[in-house]
Each structure stands twice: as C-alpha cells, then as structure tokens.
UniProtKB/TrEMBL annotation:
It is a multi-pass membrane protein. The keyword Cell inner membrane does not apply. The keyword Phosphoprotein applies. Keywords: ATP-binding, Cell membrane, Kinase, Membrane, Nucleotide-binding, Phosphoprotein, Transferase, Transmembrane, Transmembrane helix, Two-component regulatory system. It comes from the Bacteria. It is found in: Cell membrane. It holds the Pfam family HATPase_c. The chain crosses the membrane at residues 297-315. Residues 316-368 form the HAMP domain. This is HAMP domain-containing protein.
C-alpha cells in the first residue's frame, strides 16, 4: 500500500474507494471510445479550425492589399507623377520654394489615400536624396532606408513586384509600437528607376485580432526563414517560430505534440514567402465535437453520481464525529485545553466523545490545581525569605541604640547599626515583591558593610549600574545571595572586589552582572555547577556553603527567576582558575503580574 494512502483518514479512504468503483468504469469506456474515433474527430476538427482561420486570413490580406494599393497609387497616379519627377530632378540650383511646393503637392495627394486607412506610414525616396514622408522625420532620416541590408533586394525587384520586408523597428513617432510591418517597391518607367516607396503598417490592428485568441493559442505571421513577423506578444517578433519545420509544405493543417499535449498547426500563404500560422490545442478545437460525445457519458454518469452523493452523505454522517474528535485532539495537543468535542449520541462514537470530554475536564482541573500550588509555593518561598519573628521591636531598639552611640561620638558603630536596621527594614516591609534596582543595590551595600565589620575591611563593593536602569523594578533579595556566594566562595577570606553592573540589552531586557576578583573555579567545577543549575531541582541541589541571610542559595535564585519570567529569563556563568567569577542575569525589567 502506498505511504500516502496509509496517511488518509478513514473517511477519505471510503470516499476514494467509492469514487474508484463508480467513476473508473465510465472513464475507461470514454477513453476507449475516444481512441476508436480519434482519426475521424481529428479530420473534422482540422476542417472546422481551417474554416475559422480563413476569416483572419481575409482581414490580414486586406491590410496587405491596402499597402499594395498605396504603393501602386504613388507609382501610377497621373497627377502625382509630375511632382515626383520634378522633385527627383531637383539640385542645388533649384529654387527652395519650388522644392517645398513639390513636397507639399506629393504629401497632400498621399494623405488623401493614407487617411482612409489610418494605420499606414508612407515614405517616398528619390535618388537625389530628397524624400517625402507621411510621418514626422524629426528623429529619423528616411534616407537611412538606403543603408538597410534589405534595400539591395528592393532594387532587384523586377517589374512591378513588391519586396515584403517584414518586421522593421519603428521609425515613426506617431505610434509606440516597437515594430512596423514594412514593404517596399522601386518606381520605374521604361526600365529606369526614379524612386522608391516604403510602406509601414502598424501591427496593433493585426495584434488586436490575434489577441482575441485564448492564452493557450497563438496566431503569428512568419517569413520564409521561420522568423516571427507579427505576434500579439511583441517580444517574440524577430525570433524563430519553434515549430516552423513542422508546418505543412502547402496550405493546410498538421499536428504537433507540445509538453505531451496535441496541437493543431494551420498555415496559409499571405505572400510567396510569408505565412499566416495558427497554433491551437486540439482539445480546445475539438471541444464542440467532444461535447456531443460526452453527453451520452454524462447521462450515464448522472445516476452514478446521484448514488455516490447519497452514499457519501451517509459516510460523512458516520465519520464526521470522528473527524471532529481528531480535530479536538490536535487543538488540545497544541495547548488549547479549553477545547471540547461536544459529541453526543447513543452509539459508540457518541459515548467515546462524552468520555473524552470528561477526561479533558479532569486533566484541566488537575493542571489548574498544580498551577495554583506552584503559585502558592513561590509566594511561600518569598514569604519565607522575608519571614522573621516579629522584628519590629528589634528595629525600634536598634534605632534607639544607634542614637545613643552617635551621641557618644562613635559614628562608625552607629553606621553599622544603621546598615543592620536597613536590612531589618527590608524584612519587615512585605507590601511589594518588587523593588527598584537602586534599592536592591543599597541593601547589598549595607550587607557588605556588615560583613566587613566581622572580618575586617577586606572587600570593596563596586557599582557600575547604568543610570537608565536604576529605577527598574526587580524581585526583592535577588542580588544578596549572589553577593554572599561571591564573598564566601570567590574571595575565601581574602581581600578583593565585588562588582555590581547593569545595562539594557538590545532586546530591551535588563542585564545584571555580579563579578568578583576571587579564586574562580576550574572548568570541571564550572561544568558541574551549570549542570546543577540547569537540571537538578531545587530540593535535590545541596549548596556547599552555609545558607545565606535570605535562607535560599544560588540555585534557588535561578529557580525563582524561572518561575517569574519563564523562557524570558536566561543567564551566563563564566569563571576561570584565579580569574574570578562572573554571573550574568537577563530578564524583563517590567512585570505586570508575577509569573
């Protein structure tokens, strides 16, 4: 069984089976009939298409006859010939006014004929360099025709014959067409050539006629070398017609295959060298004939389709609840736990949908209970972080002691008591779970001052916080465990520096760094620490030092930030032997609601 068939749903498999069993016999019957009658249909289609092409041939021939008429008019009109001959004999001694009069006479006579056609551009060339044109010659000198490669063939034309030039680049500013269809003939009397006439035909009228054909059909005029002279698409003009070698030698029809599809080629001679070619899909041309043959097939198929519709309706009715249940499962898998199938009924599918919805209800309630438990757990940790045994009286007593010591002039000890009071103040104030960064830094300054009072002034706290970050709110007691970790593990009872730095990242998050100049960690110890912070749950991670003032260790700080910010929080820890340790925290600096 193909892999794509195995992936189909039950309903699609049933539908596919029904369609194959009902439609395939009719299709086979029609194809067999088509093969048996193909030759007869092809002959009839070719005759019909050739008949319709004769209309186009007549119109194009009419345009070309207009070109011949204009050239013959200029050659044989008795009123026009004297002016042409006089203009052809003009030289430097001829009066300019006479030359202008000859040109005006010729132009007026030409215009009476040209205006009746409307899309012809006529040029009269004389051997002495004089010319008369029915169009503006501001940007084109008609004498340039004499330098064209085809002009020698014009001069060789015998008698009254015409040289059909083909598609010539547009030389008239009166039209925006890129090409004109050109023809030329010499003007002779008694075997002597006294001038040449060149007629250009706008392609727009022929292109509009060709454009009436569908996109998959093409009507072109080609020359004896197979180059396209006229096409509805001007970009193909001058390019070879790809199927020229498959055209019939005489006027008629032939069949070619293009990309696996049969096409009919019709050709009619417009001139001894030019051909009008029509290329159309066989199916399109045979549409009317094939429609009669299909009518019988459709009548038979109607009753099969009617039966199929009824059967498909029954299949859909039976399988629709299953499809809806599958869609519900997919949405629930994507995280939309509020989705329900709402399938009911007394059959097996209805009972399955009811049991499934009740199961999802229980799962959603369980997840909601777990979420509330996690929320309560996090708040309990913060409450435990701040919990003290009624420290109000201690805070008031310490303030009283501080005042008495200051009155005795011992400002150093008074300052230490002030720092201790500030720490106690933070434990007493439980109104906000977030404080500004500068308040958190101030707390840690007090904390370092108290640590130095116990062990001597051996640690310097450096602050390198960007001014635009000081008012950003962060979780309370975030930095104190990191400072204590750097003090106890990094410096290990020796003098050194601890630096707190902050800045705003490019993505808008707040970055806080805690660096120390201590002993650092070897690579294996750093790897083990990172593994603990990433993998091991809080209750399984044992700090190697004594608990900090807040009652939580380094790992608990990371877990707390993960609970609050989720995937928006990340960190870096860098350390080296005797190179100190750097901890970088990144998290959003604005939180609407915790978690």
């Amino acid at each position: 069984m193909p892999s794509w068939l195995r992936t189909l749903s039950l309903r699609n498999k049933l539908v596919l089976t029904i369609l194959i069993c009902l439609v395939l016999p009719s299709i086979v019957s029609m194809n067999v009939s088509s093969l048996l009658t193909r030759d007869a249909v092809r002959s009839q289609v070719a005759d019909n298409s050739q008949e319709s092409m004769r209309i186009v041939n007549q119109i194009v021939n009419g345009q070309m006859k207009n070109m011949l008429y204009v050239m013959n008019f200029i050659q044989f009109d008795e009123d026009l010939q004297p002016s042409i001959r006089e203009l052809g004999r003009a030289n430097d001694q001829t009066d300019k006014g006479d030359v202008l009069a000859y040109k005006q006479t010729i132009f007026k006579k030409m215009s009476t004929v040209i205006n009746s056609f409307g899309n012809l551009y006529v040029t009269l060339l004389l051997p002495n360099g004089e010319y008369v044109a029915s169009y503006s010659t501001f940007a084109f000198n008609p004498n340039e025709f004499l330098q064209k490669s085809w002009f020698s063939d014009v001069d060789k034309a015998s008698g009254y014959n015409v040289k059909w030039i083909g598609a010539e680049p547009n030389y008239s500013q009166a039209t925006n067409q890129p090409y004109l269809l050109a023809a030329a003939k010499p003007l002779r009397i008694n075997g002597l050539t006294y001038g040449y006439v060149v007629v250009g035909l706008e392609l727009s009228s022929i292109q509009q006629l060709f454009d009436q054909y569908k996109n998959n059909e093409s009507m072109v005029i080609v020359d004896g070398q197979g180059r396209i002279l006229v096409d509805k698409d001007s970009t193909t003009i001058g390019h070879p017609f790809p199927y020229y070698d498959q055209l019939p030698a005489q006027d008629g029809s032939s069949f070619v295959k293009v990309d696996g599809e049969d096409y009919i080629l019709h050709s009619n001679h417009l001139t001894p060298e030019w051909k009008l070619v029509n290329m159309s899909p066989y199916k399109s041309a045979a549409h009317k004939i094939e429609s009669f043959r299909k009518t019988d097939f459709l009548i038979q198929l109607f009753f099969l389709i009617l039966f199929a519709v009824v059967l498909l309706y029954m299949v859909r009715t039976l399988t629709k609840p299953i499809a809806r249940l599958v869609q519900t499962v997919v949405r629930i898998e994507s995280g939309q736990l509020s989705e329900r199938s709402n399938i009911s009924g007394g059959d097996e599918v209805g009972r399955l949908g009811y049991v499934f919805d009740r199961m999802i209800d229980r799962i959603e309630r369980t997840l909601e209970e777990n979420r509330r438990e996690q929320e309560l757990k996090r708040k309990a940790e913060l409450a435990m972080l701040q919990a003290q045994i009624n420290p109000h009286f201690l805070f008031n007593v310490l303030n009283s002691i501080r005042l008495k010591i200051m009155m005795k002039g011992d400002s150093e000890n008074a300052e230490l008591i002030s720092s201790l009071s500030s720490l106690l103040r933070m434990t007493i104030n439980r109104n906000n779970e977030y404080i500004s960064l500068h308040e958190e830094i101030e707390i840690n300054e007090h904390y370092i001052r108290l640590l130095n009072s116990r062990h001597g002034d051996r640690v310097q706290l450096q602050i390198s916080a960007a001014s635009d970050t000081l008012l950003f709110e962060i979780p309370r007691f975030l930095l104190q465990p990191l400072i204590e970790n750097a003090y106890i593990h990094g410096l290990k009872s020796k003098a050194g520096e601890i630096t707190i730095a902050s800045r705003i990242c490019e993505d808008g998050r707040l970055q806080v760094e805690v660096r120390d100049s201590g002993v650092g960690m070897p690579p294996e110890r750093l790897a083990a620490l990172r593994n603990h912070l990433d993998v091991i749950p809080t209750q399984q991670f044992q700090e190697t030092s004594s608990p900090s003032l807040s009652g939580i260790g380094l790992h608990n700080v990371f877990e707390r930030l993960r609970l609050i910010y989720g995937h928006r929080f990340d960190y870096e820890i860098e350390s080296g032997q005797d190179q100190g340790t750097q901890i970088v925290l990144r998290f959003p600096h604005q939180v609407g609601k915790e978690g």
